[in-house]
Every structure is written in structure tokens, then in C-alpha cells.
């Protein structure tokens, strides 16, 4: 039944065509009757007078259903129906079923009924007036038509109701009695629907109808005269005109009413704002004078003040709104209200600005107090940290760690000094603000409250100054102690370095001081260099001893035991004894080498014919003994006091030195033989 509709097509008598599509499902005759009544109520009386042609599409239904529908038309619309075309299926109903002849019942039915196939329906109706379902060319969208119809009916219902409401409101405003007029307006001031929305809906509907009428040539949905009759375009236009007229009057009524009541509302609201700000609002500020004695206390006061500000903000928002309303009324130029409005505006502004200034002053004071307590807390924590650092015994690992600790100590002390300076600045700024607090005290004596705040601020600053002074004194003592510890570590490190240097000198003596010289002169030079080398070692040893003595003195001053001097002194003495033994051995070898080279050179330089040569044969025995002693000494290691042994140089170095001595001993032995030959020949001669 949803698709039962008037398609807009017309029969050859210019009557409307009504299509009733039937389906296999059970068809409710009651619903069909209601739908027919609705569709027949749409066309105008003029259109109804031309009659209807009803197409009953029975191609998907049964004969008994079709028969029932046709008979129902007799009861529903007998006068309007002129022709009923029953579209039969391709396979015709059984003749036994269709023995009922509609044409014989024309007089009783009141209209003609014919059975026709869909392809032969054009014999009775022009193809251009039939939809595609029946082989025609008429364009018809049932859902589109249904949606438009629903919009139209909704608009008609809403606009009619709205017109009645607006007329009641407008007529009430025209009454002579002021009290009666206001009562009428109060009861019906707001319509049940929004006039703007209804007007917009009507304009959109009218625009759609007008567009459908003139877009047929542009390839859109074609228009037929039925569109105006079914969708009632003139009725929409008439309703829109009436709505615009009544809505214009309604707007004027609203404007007048708003103008009459706005001034009264402004006066009432202004007095509400002024009374609250000068009453409860001012009383709230009178009770808030403290600044707190800690961050938490200041934050609690700030939170309380924010609550007060929140309450004031609501009234300040009302003030802004009222000020805008008054400005709008002043711009309107109603002279009779100008003086009163300006007085209200001035009174409201004075009270609000004074109260806002007091709130801002209080907020700034609490913020300054919070900053002061925050700096004081940070400074207190810094002093606690510095004091904790000073109370811990210094036990660094080396001088570098002491320097780092000392640097950290100085940085903390500098940070404390800066913190105290910042605290003084914050405190002085807060004291200056407190001194100005009495300027808005509303006559109340705030000397007691201010004195408590001032005493608290000054007490905090004095306490921090005393704590800083105590820490500075402790830092001076700790600094001296740490500098002594740095010196102690330096002495210990230098003493250890002296031991290393002496060990390196000993190592150099054993590995590089191995030559004995090729002659007496070179050997004497080596001996002189060795003595200077020993002097350097002696200075290194003395330097180490002095450092260790200074370490002992510093340990006694610091009342602590040195961690390394107890080990360094034995090492220094042990290395020095080894060096002394090695040096003495080196000196002995060089002195022996000098004696050997001097005697050998003297013998080798004497002429054989000298008579005194024959008296010095015992020198040859002496030099041989010295040479053998020197060769033996080269093969003997240096024996230290602890029993350890060490050789000079490598075996090849010693072999080279021994070879040179042996060669010179051979020359001396040859010289001795030369001297003996003349002695042997003299007696024979």
C-alpha cells in the first residue's frame, strides 16, 4: 500500500489516474480504504469533478483480491471513479474464477470496469500519461513525491499553529490596558516552534516546487499541472506571506517588550552587584591579612584567595555584561534614560574597579610571600646540605678528590651567599608591600597584623644570616684542613716520585754506566762524571727525606696517620742503600782502572835503553796483579744488603771491557819481554 499513489498522469478526459498495485501478500482492505481517502483528499474540488481513472495492477495478485478491491471502490469513491482498468497477468485467471462480469454490473457499481493486459493499456490511456510499469513514458518517483508531501504537511501544520500563536501574542500587545497587555505577553511570549525554522522550511519547499516547474527542459523531472494541485504551491506561498507578516509584528512586540524590561533588569542587577561587592565581598577581604609562615601556609592562603576571586569573578562577569548593555542603551539615544544610565554605569564601575584593585593587591602580596618562603626554604635546604657536608669527616682518596671536594664546598658557600642575597631582596619587597597594605584597610587598624608579618619576615632573614655565618666559620676550618691534606698528599706523591727517580738513577747506573775507559784520561773523566751523578742521586734522596719529614709534621697537625709514608721511607732507604753499594762498586772499578791504565801507559811509554828500566821490573808484576784483580771484579755481581745480586750491564758489555784490559796486559807483557832480552845479552858480552 506504500506505493498506492496518484502519479500525476491524466486520462483522455483530463481526469487524474490513481494506481493501486497489488502483491502476493495479504492486502488489508481497511488500510487500503484509509489510503484512498487520504489520496482523494489532496486534489481540488475542480480536479475531482473531472473524475478518476483507477488502474488496479493485479499481475502479482489473485482474482478474489482484485474483485474485493474493485467492489471496495464502489463504497469508497463511487462518484469520483469513472473508469477502472484491471491489469491482468499474462496467464489469465481461470474462467471459472472470473465468471463475474464487471461490465454487466456497471449500473450497480457506478463506474466501468475493464480487464486489460499491460501492453494494451494504451488503448485507454495515452502512453505519455502512463509510468514505465505499464509501458508508458511518464517519469514518476513515488518516494520523492511522498517525501515532498510529508514536508508540505509538516510545514502546513506547524505554520498554521504558529500563525495562531503569533496572532494571539500580537493581538495581546495591541490591547489598551497596560497590565492586561503585559499579562498576555507573559503568558504567550515564546511560540512553541521557532518561526525562523518554519520560514526556512517553507522557503525551501517553495523553492523546490518552483524548480520542478521550470526544469523540465533541462533534462530533469518533467512537470505537469497536477504538481500545483497535489503539492499546493499557492497554499505554501499564502502561508509564507502570512507568517512573514505576523513574525514581523511579533519581532516588533519583542523589541518593545525587551526595551521596556531591559532598563528595569539593569537597575536591579546593578544594585545586586554593588550590594554584594560592598557587603559580603568587602567583608571577605577584611578578614584576610596574614601572609603565612611557610610555603604550605602561603599556598593555603592563596587557595582561599582564589576562592574569593572566583566568587568575585561571577559578579565581575555580571558587571561586564551590564556595562555592555548600558553602553548599548546609551548609543540608542533615549534621552529620558541617559542620566540614570550614566549614573548607574559610573557607580558600578567605581565599585568594581576598587574591589578588583584590592583583589589584585592581595594576590600580589600572597605571591610575594610565597616567593619569600620558597627562597627561604631553598636557602634552608642549602644550609642543611652544607652543614651536613661539613659534619662528615674528610676521607678523600687523593689530592685531586680533595680539590674537587674543596671546589664543591666553595660552590655551595657561594650558592648560599646568593640565596641569602635573594632572600633579603624578596623580604624587602614584601615589607614594602606590607607597608602599603593600610591604604585600603576600610578604616580598620592593621598595625597588629602587619607587625606580626614584619616580625616574621625579619626573624626569618636574621635566622638565615646566623646560620650562614656559622657555616662560613666551619668552612674556613674545613678549608684549612683540606689545604693541609692537599699538601700532605702532595708531599706523599713527591716522596714517592723521589723514590721512583732514585730507582731510575740506580737502573741507569747498572745498565748504562759500564765503560771503564780506554786510557787513564778517559777513565778519570768517567770517574768525575760518576761523582756528579752520585751528587744528583744524593740530592734526590735528601729531597725525599725532607718530603717524608714534612708528611710526618702534617699528619701530626691533622691528627691522622699517613697512608703511604710508612711504606715510602723504607723503600727510599732500601733504594738509596742499593744505589750507595752500586756506586761504591763503580767508584772502586773506575779507580782500579785508573791505576791500571796509568801504570800501563807509563811502562809502555818508557824506552828500553833507559838504565832505570831495569830497576822497575817489579812494576810489571804489580800491573799484572791489578789487571787480574780488575778482570776478576768485572765478573763479580754487586751484592746488596738484603742479599740480592745485580750485574753491571749485559755479559757482552762486560766481555768487551775485559777484552780491552787483556789487550793492554798483553802489550805490557810484551814490553816486559823486550826489557828482559837486553838484560840477558849483557853478561855474555
From TrEMBL:
<dbReference type="GO" id="GO:0005546">
    <property type="term" value="F:phosphatidylinositol-4,5-bisphosphate binding"/>
</dbReference>
<dbReference type="GO" id="GO:0080025">
    <property type="term" value="F:phosphatidylinositol-3,5-bisphosphate binding"/>
</dbReference>
<protein>
    <submittedName>
        <fullName>SESD1 protein</fullName>
    </submittedName>
</protein>
<dbReference type="InterPro" id="IPR001251">
    <property type="entry name" value="CRAL-TRIO_dom"/>
</dbReference>
<dbReference type="GO" id="GO:0010314">
    <property type="term" value="F:phosphatidylinositol-5-phosphate binding"/>
</dbReference>
<dbReference type="Pfam" id="PF13716">
    <property type="entry name" value="CRAL_TRIO_2"/>
</dbReference>
<dbReference type="GO" id="GO:0070273">
    <property type="term" value="F:phosphatidylinositol-4-phosphate binding"/>
</dbReference>
<dbReference type="Pfam" id="PF24915">
    <property type="entry name" value="Spectrin_SESTD1"/>
</dbReference>
<keyword id="KW-0677">Repeat</keyword>
<dbReference type="GO" id="GO:0043325">
    <property type="term" value="F:phosphatidylinositol-3,4-bisphosphate binding"/>
</dbReference>
<feature type="domain" description="CRAL-TRIO">
    <location>
        <begin position="1"/>
        <end position="142"/>
    </location>
</feature>
<comment type="similarity">
    <text>Belongs to the SOLO family.</text>
</comment>
<dbReference type="GO" id="GO:0032266">
    <property type="term" value="F:phosphatidylinositol-3-phosphate binding"/>
</dbReference>
<dbReference type="InterPro" id="IPR056804">
    <property type="entry name" value="Spectrin_SESTD1"/>
</dbReference>
